[in-house]
């Protein structure tokens, strides 16, 4: 029982924020992708972007990274959340530890993982001390794109799993235990309880976590640059390159729009895949 | 073979004793009804049998296996939860099919069973709905159907019909009874409805404050309550109790009338009579002093019409007495009522131990 | 009955059957392993932070170097660090408050009502995160200078709020969806307005979600460099002050600077953690 | 207070000295605010667009200031008599106005760990090295020690393009633009490829070679003087500095100029100009040198108590510019906001030829097209070492 | 003044018609019980009155105000939810105090009222617990206490006692009735328990499939059901119905016996008699052909002991007839039973409209 305008009133503050601090500057920037300095409409910036030799690489790298990181991260976070829920003692301490990376910026995370992987880094020190290697190995050399990729994936998983974890833990806390009990009584194994009850009931949180995570994944930048240098161009690093090194705001805007478009496409996909049927809401 | 043995099971929540040492054996295929006051531990007991709660001490056996350490799914049970626990994310169909899918039944079989139980519960029209789109009673029936569909060896039902109307409940009762007898299921059934208990139970177990006070057939429990509590708890209205003081020679003074009773040395007893075992004498038809049987008199205070009957609450010596009258009895509040107990229906209780005294 | 009564944290002490000792060891092992996975890199950061410059550059590196706080004290004594720290705290706090104030109602609306434009709004909220902020900084800065918001705590907090808003909206949305509407309805019939029902019933129940949003907001603001560097001059936040010069700093200072930045965020998370994980066994009856 | 908005003196330690030593004596006070290129540019662009702002003085590289040319006030009135004339000319940015005043200068040199010296090729003079000798040296080190010991700043923040523009091309082609796709250029790239095969593989992550020197990851490096300073200051006895190598057409090298400018939107013009004058004083320039390892642009006598890095770099620079085959180049002028793309031509050539292993000829032809387009769009005439041109500098 | 007027209220969920046009007026201070089959729309109606659901059409008035557009809190109501909705994050005390705090009552008053209602509901020992630590019945009582404590003008209760045992329920019933009469509250009370309905109601409204079929006093509803549905729904066991065909002259042929009935042209009628309005003649005591009253005979099929009574399900011409017998009646399954209806208790129904025919 509510007036039709109530939802809109509730959205108003957020919408105002978005309009002033996002939509307005966004429009100005997006406009640049389609118009020249003199105001003529053109698609040449998109052509310039698409025909640049790094564009495809950056696009593919970005997608590959997201593909390698996000699903694993979701699975890991879900697993960690269930571990936490099964704990009695030490739960708070473990959760706190697991949420620590939340407070670590991507710049700092890049720094930390660089310290591990670089040639005179901890990993080499460790291997050296163990006598596995004589000479430090240049893990991050440009020829080892695979290792660089792996290092970035590790760092991203380390850094950003807690984002997903926190959302899921909070979501799991709201699932009444009676449903798990009912499932158990009806013969569901631990795994079945998880897939048939916990996961479906967690859908809203899963959806949120996944969307946010995917979007952030398309914007990976600092960690990639820290570990990969220019070896693994991604869309976001190209935005920076075009904006601040090549000083071409038009093409940079075009790149940004590409990121936006992919993000929205994936968002819609996830929203659709994890939708909750209308009657099935609590 | 699914006999259930509950041995000295106790349960504490922190400092709350929900169950004191419970001993109870439910025979294979028996239909046991658990009756007891709100908060006496019925649900707790069911949950311990189901394996959803760990007993603080004691053992639970199902068939030949001690099941204390087994997870619920290995106990061969199904349960109807007091608060239904119908999965909100599944349709009614999928809710009912849940246990069957867990058992990996082939789809045609699932379909058959779901449709059969849904029909039994009169929810066949709702199969595509979600639980959020059901009324309370409909949701409850889904919970029952879900449990029935799995055809378990042991079925635990926690007030499964509490939200159904009388008509439907009567129907369900009959059908449940038939179905469970056919499938040879051992059942523990919690209810607050005594008619339900009486009409369905092979045996009724009466619980009070975490203990089982009596476990016997319906008639036995009704006629020969093992304790004051049982008498006062079973029967609607419940048994009347009047204080009795010794009058010598195995006679007792009850409400000013000399009544023959147990010959014992107790300083006090309690005289129990069920309202429907009271014969009211039409006004002026008896003379208390000349009658063979004891004749009591009581003052009518409140009259409650109950449709088919009239319930009169009366006073004898400041003690309360309820009498069931025919609904067209022309009695009025304030009238003096003369009555006698049906003689072999009088029961005596020890006010100290609250237990019944073996009939004389 | 004078027992100490705890809120019912029912979710966690579910059935414990079927766990053999082996399972328990594996369980504990996995938990410990995952803790190490998180902690070891942090420890390495600490090692590098608390080593002398020589040790930081040495090879092979020792996992237990001699304690040397030169690098850290360099930062702590760095002129303006205190000021920047304070600015950061202010901005992050304002961001946190604003993003929840604006985000939670929106999340509530998304979870409780069906209305036209719902999906559009959700996508719109997400666009904020999906579009590279640095590009927006220029038009924003121009706007700020023109309307006088430039170089103010509030101005920066507003931008950070925009960044944190998607988190606040979506997280609260997903959690509100998990709360039976009946609890709210009960509150209404007991004399609550929607707002009061929200405060008294919904809010305590979704506290973990609110806390999560708050943490995200705080951390997002805390770690945001670009907008901070462009939009503040005198009120520079710590990252704007430090972080962006880190890439030019010598290695040992990089680590120390990184640690100096990380620490307050960790303390913050530590402080709010109990809200993050406070749970009520919500049954729908 | 005048806000000094700078991309230089960014590292925390330098910031601190700038604030506490260099600017401390300026009357009226100055707030030194360094930031990274992105925010730096965005902020000043915003102020210029808004027409008002807080920035009083801009301090940045020649290349950055070119872009803002239209928004900078004419500083001709300031006293520039003691300044390097070439730099002053650069400061006009191709206009009649003095758009910026030179602030400080630097260049790129080589540095080596003393352990590397024993592998120096027979008969090679460290102060007159040739590219072939550098290659041979790197090769020996790689073979003898088991890992490549030459390091090159090819990381994201590394200044690799300067090496190609100001060192490799002039040394091999005596040109920066015109002979971009010449046979000599092809040879140069092939030589570099050879050198790369003895270069540390992680070089694509290196941006500040002092770090890798200090960790002993590499022994011989090429980088900006300021980006080597830490190594010399921390372990003065372990490292030596020496000139860049020479090629067939001489010892190419390129200076870096940092300028100071005042934007149209400056809140207090007078104070801003005063700050620039203050910064141009010899004593202040020396203090600046101490802080940043960038050398003065006015004639000064350096005192003896300079940091080790200054001494080492100073000697190497002197040796480089004083060498018989010195072939100095100039920073690109007149490119406007195409400077970035100009750099990208060289960086892309590097990434394609060296990292991606594409055919040298093809890449050069391809990149030459881009280069030509840029030059034509900017209409920039040639600069040293290319011979002056009428109109846009041609790419043969 | 809190008269509730419900005018032509209808409610659709998508294509499901939960309520067809409902018209109902509940007088000020009246205690109206809503009875109806599971899923017939009782909860929906309550929710519309409470303002939790918007009616698809129609008006709701409370007192002199049309409240359709008012939020729940401005309607002066309190409600007990069918599924309790006890706040999980508050103690029992704070749950009960919730409405009082909203009304900004001073703490001593809050304390007083909470303790009073808690005592009334026998949950005074549980005040410091959380809802997760309560049994089903205890939780339900908290929900009732929470609503009572606010002393609303209008109280809506959706099966508030369904999870309580008979004894407690009886007690609660009486106390509720007293308290609500004292506080002059207008009450709509949904229940499935007919005894409860009969004993508490000023008036009973019978719902069927989203419509109100009859709204009248308990006796009226019981004695003179307005429709076949009411007769079959009310009474435990419900009214017996036997087909009747015209036998001329206002007589009807019922189960082979000639019975005087309404004089009408209908081709068929239905003869209704309540089980307890059946007088069984002791075997051989009557001769059907010579008796003045119609004498029917029926074959006993099933006997169910109900404690105080014996329920016999019999057959007449393939039609079902249920008779209530004294529990010590020595009857057996298969016996032939001779009976007559108590004459003025026979009711007649039109099988077409299903409505009762005005008594003759
Ligand atoms: N959200 C919904 N969508 C579709 N149908 C609904 C919805 N809610 C209720 N219904 C249907 O409306 C009808 C009336 O529901 P209501 O809850 O009012 O029944 P009720 O009389 O309270 O039943 P019960 O005694 O079982 O609680 C039911 O048939 C139910 O299935
Ligand atoms: N988690 C708990 N903590 C403390 N006490 C509890 C907890 N759960 C149940 N109890 C108490 O244990 C007793 C038994 O509860 P149980 O649910 O078994 O009662 P019940 O017989 O099912 O009652 P009802 O008929 O009301 O459902 C109750 O008094 C209840 O208050
Ligand atoms: Mg219970
Ligand atoms: Mg209902």
From TrEMBL, chain A:
Keywords: Membrane, Transmembrane, Transmembrane helix, Transport
Membrane topology (UniProt): Multi-pass membrane protein
Source organism, top-level taxon: Bacteria
Family: Belongs to the binding-protein-dependent transport system permease family.
Protein name: L-arabinose transport system permease protein AraP
Cellular component, GO annotation: plasma membrane
ABC transmembrane type-1 domain location: 59-270
Spans traversing the lipid bilayer: 59-81, 93-116, 147-170, 210-232, 252-274
Intracellular or extracellular location(s): Cell membrane
GO aspect biological process, one term: transmembrane transport
Coiled-coil intervals: none
Keyword Transmembrane: yes
Organism annotation: Granulosicoccus antarcticus IMCC3135
Record bears the keyword Disulfide bond: no
One Pfam match: BPD_transp_1
Classification via SUPFAM superfamilies: MetI-like
InterPro entries linked: MetI-like, MetI-like_sf, Sugar_ABC_transporter
Gene designation per UniProt: araP
TrEMBL record, chains B, E:
EC assignment: 3.6.3.20
Source domain of life: Bacteria
Coiled coil: none
Annotated organism of origin: Granulosicoccus antarcticus IMCC3135
Gene3D superfamilies, alphabetized: 2.40.50.100, Nucleic acid-binding proteins, P-loop containing nucleotide triphosphate hydrolases
Gene Ontology, cellular component aspect: ATP-binding cassette (ABC) transporter complex, substrate-binding subunit-containing
Keyword terms: ATP-binding, Hydrolase, Nucleotide-binding, Transport
Domain ABC transporter: 4-234
A GO BP annotation: carbohydrate transport
Any GO MF annotation of the entry: ABC-type transporter activity
Name of the protein this chain belongs to: sn-glycerol-3-phosphate import ATP-binding protein UgpC
Membrane-crossing residue ranges in chain numbering: none
Matching InterPro entries: AAA+_ATPase, ABC_transporter-like_ATP-bd, ABC_transporter-like_CS, ABC_transpr_MalK-like, ABC_transpr_MalK/UgpC-like, Mo/tungstate-bd_C_term_dom, NA-bd_OB-fold, P-loop_NTPase
TrEMBL record, chain C:
Coiled coil regions in record: none
CDD domains in the cross-refs: TM_PBP2
Keyword flag Calcium: no
Superkingdom to which the source organism belongs: Bacteria
Subcellular location: Cell membrane
Membrane topology annotation: Multi-pass membrane protein
Residue ranges of domain ABC transmembrane type-1 in the record: 85-272
Pfam family, one: BPD_transp_1
InterPro entries reported for this sequence: BP-dep_ABC_trans_perm, MetI-like, MetI-like_sf
Any one GO BP annotation for this protein: transmembrane transport
Family membership: Belongs to the binding-protein-dependent transport system permease family. MalFG subfamily.
Protein name: Trehalose transport system permease protein SugB
Organism name: Granulosicoccus antarcticus IMCC3135
Lineage, opening ranks: Bacteria, Pseudomonadati, Pseudomonadota, Gammaproteobacteria, Chromatiales
């Amino acid at each position: 029982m509510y007036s039709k305008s109530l939802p809109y009133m509730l959205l108003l503050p957020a919408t105002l924020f978005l309009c002033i601090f996002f939509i307005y500057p966004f429009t100005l920037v997006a406009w640049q992708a389609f118009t020249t300095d003199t105001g003529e409409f053109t698609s040449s910036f998109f052509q310039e972007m698409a025909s640049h030799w790094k564009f495809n690489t950056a696009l593919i790298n970005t997608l590959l990274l997201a593909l390698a990181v996000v699903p694993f991260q979701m699975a890991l976070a879900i697993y960690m959340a269930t571990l936490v829920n099964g704990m009695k003692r030490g739960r708070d301490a473990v959760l706190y530890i697991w949420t620590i990376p939340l407070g670590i910026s991507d710049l700092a995370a890049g720094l930390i993982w660089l310290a591990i992987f670089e040639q005179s880094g901890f990993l080499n020190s460790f291997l050296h001390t163990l006598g596995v290697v004589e000479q430090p190995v240049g893990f991050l050399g440009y020829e080892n794109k695979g290792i660089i990729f792996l290092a970035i994936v590790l760092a991203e998983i380390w850094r950003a799993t807690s984002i997903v974890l926190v959302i899921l833990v909070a979501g799991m806390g709201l699932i009444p235990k009676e449903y798990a009990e009912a499932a158990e009584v009806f013969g569901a194994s631990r795994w079945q309880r998880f897939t048939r009850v916990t996961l479906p009931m967690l859908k809203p949180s899963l959806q949120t976590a996944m969307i946010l995570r995917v979007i952030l994944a398309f914007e990976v930048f600092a960690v990639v640059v820290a570990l990969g240098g220019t070896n693994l161009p991604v869309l976001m690093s190209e935005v920076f390159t075009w904006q601040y090194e090549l000083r071409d705001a038009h093409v940079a805007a075009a790149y940004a729009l590409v990121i936006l478009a992919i993000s929205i496409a994936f968002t819609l996909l996830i929203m659709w895949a994890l939708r909750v049927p209308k009657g099935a809401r609590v | 073979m699914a006999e259930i043995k509950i041995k000295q099971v106790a349960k504490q929540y922190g400092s709350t004793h929900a169950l004191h040492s419970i001993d109870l054996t439910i025979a294979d295929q028996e239909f046991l009804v658990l009756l007891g006051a709100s908060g006496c531990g019925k649900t707790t007991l069911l949950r311990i049998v189901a394996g959803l709660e760990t007993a603080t001490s004691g053992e639970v056996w199902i068939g030949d296996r001690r099941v204390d350490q087994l997870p619920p799914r290995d106990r061969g049970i199904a349960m109807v939860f007091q608060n239904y626990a119908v999965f909100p994310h599944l349709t009614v169909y999928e809710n009912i099919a849940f246990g069957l899918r867990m058992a990996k039944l082939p789809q045609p079989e699932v379909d058959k069973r779901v449709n059969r139980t849904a029909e039994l519960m009169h929810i066949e029209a709702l199969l595509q709905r979600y639980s959020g789109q059901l009324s309370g009673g409909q949701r409850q029936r889904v919970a029952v159907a879900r449990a029935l569909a799995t055809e378990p060896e042991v079925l635990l039902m926690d007030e499964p019909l509490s939200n159904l109307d009388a008509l439907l409940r009567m129907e369900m009762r009959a059908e449940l009874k038939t179905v469970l007898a056919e499938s040879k299921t051992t059942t523990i059934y919690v209810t607050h409805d005594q008619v339900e208990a009486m009409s369905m139970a092979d045996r009724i177990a009466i619980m009070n404050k975490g203990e089982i006070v009596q476990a016997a057939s319906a008639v036995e429990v009704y006629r020969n309550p093992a304790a004051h509590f049982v008498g006062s708890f079973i029967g609607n209205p419940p048994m009347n109790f009047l204080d009795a003081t010794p009058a010598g020679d195995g006679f007792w003074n009850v409400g000013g009338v000399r009544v023959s009773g147990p010959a014992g040395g107790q300083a006090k007893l309690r005289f129990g009579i069920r309202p429907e075992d009271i014969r009211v004498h039409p006004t002026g038809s008896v003379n208390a002093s000349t009658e063979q049987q004891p004749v009591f008199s009581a003052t009518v205070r409140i009259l409650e019409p109950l449709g088919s009957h009239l319930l009169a609450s009366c006073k004898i010596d400041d003690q309360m007495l309820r009498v069931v009258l025919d609904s067209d009895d022309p009695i009025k509040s304030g009238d003096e009522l003369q009555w006698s107990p049906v003689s072999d229906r009088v029961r005596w209780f020890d006010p100290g131990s609250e237990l019944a005294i073996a009939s004389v | 009955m004078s027992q100490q009564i705890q809120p019912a944290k029912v979710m966690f002490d579910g059935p414990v059957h079927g766990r053999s000792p082996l399972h328990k060891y594996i369980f504990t092992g996995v938990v410990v392993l995952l803790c190490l996975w998180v902690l070891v890199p942090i420890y390495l950061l600490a090692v590098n932070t608390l080593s002398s410059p020589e040790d930081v550059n040495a090879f092979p590196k020792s996992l237990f170097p001699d304690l040397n706080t030169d690098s850290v004290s360099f930062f702590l004594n760095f002129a303006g660090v205190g000021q920047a720290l304070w600015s950061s705290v202010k901005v992050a706090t304002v961001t946190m408050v604003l993003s929840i104030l604006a985000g939670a109602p929106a999340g509530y609306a998304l979870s409780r009502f069906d209305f036209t434009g719902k999906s559009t709004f959700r996508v719109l909220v997400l666009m904020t995160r999906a579009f590279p902020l640095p590009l927006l900084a220029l038009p924003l800065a121009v706007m700020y200078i023109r309307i006088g918001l430039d170089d103010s705590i509030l101005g920066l907090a507003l931008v950070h709020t925009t960044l944190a808003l998607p988190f606040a909206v979506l997280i609260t949305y997903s959690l509100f969806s998990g709360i039976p509407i009946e609890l709210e309805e009960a509150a209404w019939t007991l004399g609550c307005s929607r707002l009061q029902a929200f405060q008294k019933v919904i809010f305590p129940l979704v506290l973990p979600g609110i806390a999560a949003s708050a943490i995200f907001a705080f951390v997002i603001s805390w770690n945001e460099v670009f907008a901070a560097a462009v939009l503040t001059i005198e009120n520079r936040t710590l990252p704007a002050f430090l972080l962006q010069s880190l890439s030019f700093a010598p290695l040992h200072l990089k680590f120390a600077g990184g640690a100096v930045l990380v620490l307050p965020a960790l303390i913050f998370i530590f402080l709010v953690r109990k809200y993050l994980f406070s749970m009520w066994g919500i049954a729908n009856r | 207070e005048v806000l000094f908005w700078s991309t230089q003196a960014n590292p925390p330690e330098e910031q601190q000295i700038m604030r506490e030593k260099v600017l401390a004596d300026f009357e009226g006070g100055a707030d030194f605010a360094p930031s990274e290129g992105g925010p730096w540019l965005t902020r000043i662009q915003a102020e210029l667009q808004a027409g008002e702002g807080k920035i009083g003085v801009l301090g940045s590289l020649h290349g950055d200031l070119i872009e803002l040319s239209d928004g900078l006030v004419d500083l001709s009135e300031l006293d520039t008599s003691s300044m390097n004339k070439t730099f002053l000319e650069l400061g006009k940015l191709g206009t009649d106005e003095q758009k910026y005043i030179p602030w400080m200068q630097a260049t790129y040199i080589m540095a080596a760990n003393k352990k590397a010296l024993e592998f120096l090729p027979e008969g090679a003079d460290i102060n007159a090295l040739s590219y072939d000798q550098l290659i041979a040296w790197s090769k020996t080190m790689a073979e003898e020690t088991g890992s490549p010991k030459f390091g090159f700043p090819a990381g994201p923040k590394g200044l690799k393009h300067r090496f190609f523009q100001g060192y490799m091309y002039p040394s091999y082609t005596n040109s920066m633009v015109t002979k971009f796709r010449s046979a000599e250029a092809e040879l140069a790239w092939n030589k570099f490829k050879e050198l790369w095969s003895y270069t540390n593989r992680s070089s694509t992550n290196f941006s500040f070679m002092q770090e890798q020197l200090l960790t002993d990851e590499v022994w011989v490096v090429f980088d900006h003087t300021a980006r080597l300073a830490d190594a010399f200051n921390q372990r003065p006895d372990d490292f030596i500095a020496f000139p860049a190598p020479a090629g067939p057409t001489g010892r190419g090298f390129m200076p870096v100029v940092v300028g100071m400018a005042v934007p149209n939107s400056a809140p207090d013009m007078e104070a801003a100009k005063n700050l620039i004058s203050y910064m141009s004083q010899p004593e202040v320039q020396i203090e600046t040198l101490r802080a940043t390892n960038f050398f003065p642009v006015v004639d000064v006598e350096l005192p003896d108590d300079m940091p080790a890095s200054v001494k080492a770099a100073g000697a190497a620079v002197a040796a480089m510019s004083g060498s018989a085959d010195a072939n100095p180049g100039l920073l690109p002028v007149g490119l406007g906001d195409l400077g970035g793309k100009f750099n990208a031509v060289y960086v892309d050539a590097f990434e394609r030829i060296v990292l991606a292993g594409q055919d040298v000829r093809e890449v050069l032809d391809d990149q030459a097209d881009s280069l030509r387009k840029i030059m034509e769009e900017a209409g920039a005439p040639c600069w040293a070492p290319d011979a002056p041109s009428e109109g846009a500098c041609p790419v043969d």
